[in-house]
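2024-03-11 09:14:02 DEBUG pipeline.ingest accepted 1 chain
2024-03-11 09:14:02 DEBUG pipeline.ingest length=218
2024-03-11 09:14:03 DEBUG pipeline.predict start
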Amino acid sequence: MDQSFNYLISPEISKFRNFSPKLKIVILASGEGSNFQKLIDLSNSNKFDIDIKLLITNNSEAGCLLRAKKSNISYKIIQTSDYDNKEYFEDEIINTIKKNDIELVVMAGWMKIMSSKFVNAFKNKIINIHPSLLPSFKGNKAIKQAITNGSKITGCSVHFVEPEVDSGSLIMQAAFSISDQDNIDSISKKIHLLEHEILPKSISQAGYLIRNGFKGND
């Protein structure tokens, strides 16, 4: 982790949970997939007991596709333009996930707002990473919103997904101060570094809660 700026992560989790068998996850991503790559690296190095069963992307030109191909991870391109309406688009994603016997759905740079039907199909089994300290600055352009509003602190959050956009129980957050020299680009780079830190730990925590029926957090 780059230590060139000060940051705080809460809750601080020092190690990953152990999963046997490995936790089965699907990644939903629309872009370059740097968080996806971090998870691939952790899995390949046997530092994290996850089985990345599948990548689903809604962008046929997304960089995450190249990462999946290079690592021999199954992938499926599901684009809204290929379906008559959003419901059919979401049905295809739902059916694909269910066929792969997934335990946890991880939205890592997934640039689509999903309906209540989708969320309820995997109730308490979807997490999302967002570039703000929720509940502040929901929706898109969160970094720009933080700057425009004169925020002194920003960061990123991982949360369970509920039908309301960028709501749901928080799993972990990372925060840092905004300096006078910061801009959208510099803040974005810092947030990406912190996302790579908290998303795997949040997956670990979410997986633990799911496997234990949300009965404890010891």
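2024-03-11 09:14:41 DEBUG pipeline.report The mean pLDDT is 95.
2024-03-11 09:14:41 DEBUG pipeline.predict end
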